[in-house]
Amino acid sequence: MKIGQPSDLPVAATPSQAAATSGAAAKGGPAAAANEAASRQASNTGVAVKVSARVRTLEQASRSDAAEVDMDKVNAVRSAIEQGTYVVNAEAIADKLLANAKEMLDRTRS
Questions:
Q1: Which residues contact residue 7 at a Cβ distance below 8 angstroms, ignoring those fewer than 6 apart?
Q2: In this structure, are 13 and 56 located in the same domain?
Q3: Are both 37 and 2 inside the same structural domain?
Q4: Residue 79 burial class via C-beta count within 10 angstroms: exposed 0-12, middle 13-18, buried 19 and up
Q5: Is the pTM here over 0.85, yes or no?
Q6: In a designed cystine with 80, which of 7, 14, 86, 96 is the match (CB 3.0 to 4.6 A)?
């Protein structure tokens, strides 16, 4: 669910949901179908959330700070992979994995 989107709009049953309800009615009768429909309705309801102006400002700032994709570099790597000349530096990958794991452990201990 996205924040800021109305979640209390009625949701139409998809064909698979309708088939599941009719299958439940065939197996357990009308009571089973009613219970299935009630549980599905309960899972579709949402809670109203208000987002402060400060959070909206932070969200907009994070969107504008998003890293631009360097398509020249992407195409160069793609080309090297296709030609079979791309070399993976396993040592650099291992070092970064260990650094990330250490960082995560330090955060959980704090």
A1: 1, 45, 46, 47, 48
A2: yes
A3: yes
A4: exposed
A5: no
A6: 86
